[in-house]
């Protein structure tokens, strides 16, 4: 009954319930003026791509709610949302679907 177990990136991380896995977009390395930013000065972007979905929120009647998101959606989220996890030398965010603010079209 899992909505999506693995994506094109073949991650081995399956979220449970209403949680999703997001791969954060890379931050800019240079400013508009051409100044190269060191890693310590970069802000982590609050955008990413959904790479895996859990099974859905458990409702009072025992059924599961459908996700509003789909694997591959580009999303905007709070900069403090989710837990950072590292799998196979790649960094992902594990968060609830409610932490997503908008879908970028």
From TrEMBL:
<dbReference type="InterPro" id="IPR037124">
    <property type="entry name" value="Chaperonin_GroES_sf"/>
</dbReference>
<keyword id="KW-0143">Chaperone</keyword>
<dbReference type="InterPro" id="IPR011032">
    <property type="entry name" value="GroES-like_sf"/>
</dbReference>
<dbReference type="GO" id="GO:0051082">
    <property type="term" value="F:unfolded protein binding"/>
</dbReference>
<keyword id="KW-0963">Cytoplasm</keyword>
<comment type="similarity">
    <text>Belongs to the GroES chaperonin family.</text>
</comment>
<dbReference type="GO" id="GO:0044183">
    <property type="term" value="F:protein folding chaperone"/>
</dbReference>
<comment type="subunit">
    <text>Heptamer of 7 subunits arranged in a ring. Interacts with the chaperonin GroEL.</text>
</comment>
<dbReference type="InterPro" id="IPR020818">
    <property type="entry name" value="Chaperonin_GroES"/>
</dbReference>
<comment type="function">
    <text>Together with the chaperonin GroEL, plays an essential role in assisting protein folding. The GroEL-GroES system forms a nano-cage that allows encapsulation of the non-native substrate proteins and provides a physical environment optimized to promote and accelerate protein folding. GroES binds to the apical surface of the GroEL ring, thereby capping the opening of the GroEL channel.</text>
</comment>
<dbReference type="GO" id="GO:0046872">
    <property type="term" value="F:metal ion binding"/>
</dbReference>
<dbReference type="Pfam" id="PF00166">
    <property type="entry name" value="Cpn10"/>
</dbReference>
<dbReference type="GO" id="GO:0005524">
    <property type="term" value="F:ATP binding"/>
</dbReference>
<dbReference type="GO" id="GO:0051087">
    <property type="term" value="F:protein-folding chaperone binding"/>
</dbReference>
<dbReference type="GO" id="GO:0005737">
    <property type="term" value="C:cytoplasm"/>
</dbReference>
<dbReference type="InterPro" id="IPR018369">
    <property type="entry name" value="Chaprnonin_Cpn10_CS"/>
</dbReference>
<protein>
    <recommendedName>
        <fullName>Co-chaperonin GroES</fullName>
    </recommendedName>
</protein>
């Amino acid at each position: 009954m899992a909505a999506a177990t693995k994506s094109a990136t073949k991650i081995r991380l399956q979220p449970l319930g209403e949680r999703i896995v997001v791969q954060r977009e890379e931050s800019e390395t240079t400013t508009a003026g051409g100044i190269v930013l060191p890693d310590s000065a970069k802000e982590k972007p609050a955008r990413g791509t959904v790479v895996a979905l859990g099974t859905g929120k458990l409702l009072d009647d025992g059924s599961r709610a459908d996700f509003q998101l789909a694997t591959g959606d580009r999303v905007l989220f709070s900069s403090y949302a989710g837990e950072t996890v590292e799998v196979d030398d790649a960094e992902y965010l594990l968060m609830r679907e409610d932490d997503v603010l908008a879908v970028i079209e």
